[in-house]
Amino acid sequence: MRCTRGFLSSLVLLVSVCTVFQLAPPAWAAPERSLEVYAIDVEGGQSTLIVSPSGESMLIDTGWPGFDGRDAARIGAAAKAAGVSKLDYVLITHFHRDHVGGVPQLAGRTKIGTFVDHGKNLEDSDVTREDYAAYEKAVAGAKRISPKPGDRIPIMGLEVEVLTAAGEHISKPLAGAGEPNPLCAAEKDGEPDPSENARSLGVLITYGKIRVLDIGDLSKQKEMELVCPNNLIGRVDLFIVTHHGSDSSNPAALVHVIRPRVAIMDNGAKKGGSSVVWTTVTSSPGLQDLWQLHYAMDGGKDHNVAPDLIANPEGAAGGGEDKGNYIHVTGKADGTMTVVNQRNGFKKDYGLQPPKLSGSAH
User: Fold this and answer.
1) What is the DSSP string of 213-258?
2) What's the domain count of the chain?
């Protein structure tokens, strides 16, 4: 009888221990994977680092040349923060200096797997020809691809769909898209644009329930082709505001129909950040927040977001030192996102419901 009781006590203890281990995951369990997005300050140009849950990376644009390698150094700092030692892809949206100019300096300091672009330069201007020639020289001998609308860039853990390239766009709606757009009738047609802006290589990046839209500097006429008469894109969660927030892009017929939950404007202190676009974006149905890389000097207090949502509130143009702070987004497969301002550590969590505030904007 004594042995039986001892056996039963041991059995109960074993079951209790097993139950505890079933309920509590071990401390060494791998953290939940996520999509990482870094909006890097390159002073009114563009450079956005995407890191997939698998650890593969894609940099969209490289900022400016010159400035003692400033933009390449800022990209390197963001990559280090993301734990990235190699850029698997460098995607150039188009061949304007503030997007492609940093390639030679970046290639000289960072290992790059594949360059992605829309093909040859299509703008008749001396400066763009010069920048394209510098790009071709820098990527000579490297792997280079030029996808077409509808193609995909193979990044493990993500779905990266090409929407626009070399002036063309997808002809069929993406999965779940295709609804008529009632905003098209009230929108004025965009002017034909012979520049490289209209040839921007634009992508939609999907991870689980999160969809991120970046269409470079695509001009209004080409943006309208994506959403009129039918919305070929559908809704997105994170929108990299087109063309640094310039009013030659970002019509309400696009911004309001894609209904982003969060938007990031990669404006400079005195570049982009149009008051008209600011109003269009902030009034978009369902938008929870707009974040800015810079305080827009021409916008004044009425057309800039709260200081905590601005990575660089003063900068050289405002009389202060520009630290080149980035905005960091972490996205989970369930659709939740967290956005952090490198400058002050201010953070906001975004679920599918109204956002949970960490800290206090003022």
Assistant:
1) EE-TT--HHHHHHHHSSB-SS---SEEE-GGGG-TTS--HHHHHHH
2) 1
